[in-house]
Amino acid sequence: KFFLYYGDITDGLTITQLIRKIKPTEIYNLAAQSHVAVSFELPEYTMVTNALGTLKILEAIKNINPKIKFYQAGTSEMFGLSPPPQSENTPFSPISPYAVSKLSAHWMTITYREAYGLYACNGILFNHESPIRGETFVTQKIIKGLINIKKNKQKKIFLGNLYAKRDWGHAKDYVQVMWKMLQQNKPKDYVVATGTQYTVKDFINLATKKLNMPIIWKGKKLKEKAYYNNKPIIEIDSRYFRPSEVDSLKGNSKKIKKDLNWKPKYNIHTLIEDMIKKIK
Ligand code: GDP
Asked: Is the model's pTM score more than 0.90?
């Protein structure tokens, strides 16, 4: 009962034709240029895909069948410079083309809900990871890199800012709650997060412990390195620093806990263990 169709979020005609053909009752818009660093390299593409792409689906729903329920994948990056803990009431302060494009999609979703009465929800999801996370995102880059180093398939991992703080959850928990959001009487927007925060360096320390790879940190700032078996395995490469960076994300997801009785099953430890187990 699972059918795949080709389409492209930047191609409004195809989106419209697909919605006419498939006659969906729910649409989950996860289509995006979703990498923050890439959005600085490709700002126009990011905006066209993430902001206009969302508008194309909303327009198609409005014109074809306004009863179709719509989920928009928002992101904690939209909070940007606003200090944690971030909730539905925190002001947005985006500082990357990615965050600006997603915030445009966020407000367009609200606009179509208010203007045309669509059942349209924004999930404001904090970082969510899994064993199938893309390799250019930091968690997967670290786990895969460490496993490769242990197997002598790779010598080093080059990273950027080790001190950014993130609220990392498991994608499995988050996907379930996307569905729950569309099963309510009224459409609402929700923050989805674990409420815990770790630095990139904490993530590395936890992963190396679980992989039984004792490391020692030496040096400061741009010269900081992690050593394993007396060899440097993690080094800083300034190429991975972003022109502007969100320093600290930690979500307050009380609203979704109360309304939808949602609590994540995974924590940072079980998330890392799952990634290691499936990738090994
Ligand atoms: P994001 O929070 O959506 O940007 O998810 P990422 O996994 O791409 O990045 C998480 C954090 O790790 C950000 O603060 C990055 O600056 C930081 N980071 C440090 N080194 C790297 C790296 O080599 N790659 C990526 N993707 N992020 C890195």
From this structure: yes
